[in-house]
Amino acid sequence: MAIASKLQEYMSEHGLRYDVLTHPHSHNSMETAQLARVPGNCLAKSVVLEDDDGFLMAVLPSTQHVQLGWLSKAMQSNLRLASEDELSALFADCEPGAVPPAGIAYGMRMVVDDALAEQPEIYFEGGDHEKLIQMSCEDFMTMMEEAKHIRFGEHYWRH
Q1: H, E, C per residue of 106-130
Q2: Is the pTM of this model over 0.90?
Q3: Which of 26, 100, 110, 136 is most exposed, with the fewest beta carbons within 10 Å of its own?
């Protein structure tokens, strides 16, 4: 599969510079980072949530998980995970589980964890499980300019 069409159109329209890296097929973001040999804290992952106002894409490093309570409080909303069926409908141009962190290209509100702004470059799924988009942090943050920027992730190894 190629890069998701909506993602590619969005990046092209906004003049974002990027490279495409190929890696062996992966099943989750941590495995993707390992197989692609990129730092997990530089790999942005997407978690799609919903509330009474619709869908919200949360973007954070692959080494973290969404603290739903924190994020719900920060967004003043009762957030819950979107269902697999909803994700398939929203991201028809992507393989299941390979949602690019470009909710804006899909008409979705976004929130990004500030931890990503600390990285020199960012990697993310391009719509399938064998390609990563690589771009400078500057270009990635341009893509995130309409997103709310807060800290809402927590490292997996914390209790």
Answers
A1: HCCEEEEEHHHHHCCEEEEECCCCC
A2: yes
A3: 136
